[in-house]
Amino acid sequence: MTKLTSEHWKFIYDIITIQLFKKQQVFFPMFVEYIKFLYLQNKPIDNSVGTLLKEQPTNLSNFEYKNEKFQKAMLQVYIKLLPEVYDEKDILTFQVALSVIKWNQKHPKEKICISSQKEILSTIKN
User: Which superkingdom, per the lineage (predicted)?
Assistant: First the structure.
């Protein structure tokens, strides 16, 4: 994927957009790679991550991002956007919380704080 150019990603974005428009399931790994491309180009990723969360990926907690800075950025955006984009919070919220817990265990010097996120904390408590 690293060898793809901006022109390639433009076409991939078009495919993703068509899938979303037609209400078809988007291929989660490809969408994440597109978001990674945006991130590495220093472009905003919040809107794309919001769309990704709305698509309700099946298991965020086991997904391999293959770039730790990108993974941390994704987790931070997930936490920020989760209350805005997801109505039935339980499953996805739990997955985000589990992903953050795994991150914090693996990176004790770069912990991500979720204590200010009431939605995540209430889901974990219940």
Answer: Eukaryota
